[in-house]
Amino acid sequence: MKHRIEEINKLQIPTWSRHAINETTISLDFTDLKPYRENPLKNNDNCIQIEENAIKNSSSIRMEENALKNDADTNVKGVREFVRNHSNQTYHIHINDNEVLDEPMVLNFIMDSENSLLIEEIIINAGRDSKATIIISYFSKEDGRHIHCGHTKMNLDKGAEIDLIKIQLLSEQSTHLDKNRVTVGEGAVANMILAELGSGNLISECDVSLESDRSMAKLDSIYIGNKSKVIDMNYRMEYVGRHSQGFITAKGALMDKCRKTFKNTLDFVAGSFGSKGREEETVISLSEEAVNISVPLLLCGEENVEGQHASNIGRLSKSKLFYLMSRGLNEKEAKRLMVEASFTPIIEKIPLEALRNRIFHYISEVIQHDK
Amino acid sequence: MTKLLEINNLHAAIDGKEIIRELNLSVNKGEVHVIMGPNGAGKSTLANVIMGYPHYTVTKGNIIFEEDDITEDRTDERAKKGIFLSFQNSEEVEGITVENFLRAAKGAITGQNISFVSFRKELMSVMSEIDFDSEYAHRYLNVGFSGGEKKKNEIVQMLVLNPKLAILDETDSGLDVDAVRAVSEGINRFRSKNNAIIIITHNTRLLSSVEPDYVHILADGRIMRTGDKSLAHEINEHGFTSLPLL
Question: I need a labelling partner for A114 at 20 to 30 A (CA). Which of A16, A36, A78, A238 fits?
Answer without folding.
Answer: A78
